[in-house]
Every structure is written in C-alpha cells, then in structure tokens.
Fold:
Amino acid sequence: CGSISTRARFLRRLDRTMGSLDIRIFGDPVLRTPARPVDVFDDALRKLAADMLDTMRAAPGVGLAAPQVGVDRRLFVFDSGERSGALCNPTITWMSEETQEGEEGCLSIPNVYFPVVRAMHIRVEAQDLDGAPVVEEVSEFEARIFQHEIDHLDGILFVDRLEPEVRKEAMQAIRDMLLGL
Ligand code: ZN
Structure:
C-alpha cells in the first residue's frame, strides 16, 4: 500500500534527523573485534556520542558501545535513569569482590535476557569527550552497565559471561531470535 510506504519513508527520514544509527546484531564481526582507542576528541566524536545516545534511548536501552553502531573506537554512552554520559577509553582499575546477579539484555541481541554475575562496585579511569581524564566510581546498576559496555569494547558479549550450561541455552535463544522464531 502506497500510503504505508510513504509513511515508512517519512519515519525513516525523521529517524535520521534525530541521529539514529543502525545497531549491529549478533553475528556481525564488528561486535567481536576489540576496538581501537579514541585519539581524536573533536566535534565528530561529540556528534557520534550524541547520535549514540539518541539511538540508545529510541531503542530503548540503557547503554550502547561504539562497536554496536559499527564504529571501531573505545567509546560508550549510558543512561541509568539517574544520569547519562559518555566515556572514552575506559579501563576498570578496581573491582569489588562483592558481586551482584541481575538480568541483562543487549541491543545487539534483541529479546534475549539472562542473569549475569558482575562486580557490585567498580572504579573506572577514562576520558570525557574533550579528552580530559575522569575517574568514575559506580555501584549496582551503573556498575553493571559499565561492565557490560566495557566488555563490548573488547569484543565480549554478555552471553560469554554465562556458565557453560546456561550459555548453551542462551545460544539456542539467539539462534531462535536470528531465525525470527
Ligand atoms: Zn550490549
């Protein structure tokens, strides 16, 4: 029907205006490639981070790493509900022994959710979008988001963190998802 496709075209155009980026799905090699450091802190980087935030919120999600939009750089954005931001070149410099278990999903693995064990508290050294050094100490939900997103920068997905038996179940769920079941 013509009117539907006109509307779809209009919506796609609207999406683009809002800075929507294509999210790469499980199986795309970019998700398995360790990303390169951000070394240029310019307007293009800030535009990319803003577009990533728009894309993440529209999805909707709480975190998005650059490889998930096909960009081979160590950058992620987040919005925990309490605050939002972008971090470049993050390194976890401390993790608590105390852990937390909670359900995780991933915008690159739609509709697949499994509980993942993460550190309860972490310290992260990173740079902001201007290249200035920042230190973040985060706990609970934000610590979970940060660990999930930093994993993405090393080509690691949350299903890799599951116990072997549960991981098998997750891989089956991913196959079903990819087949559209
Ligand atoms: Zn993810």
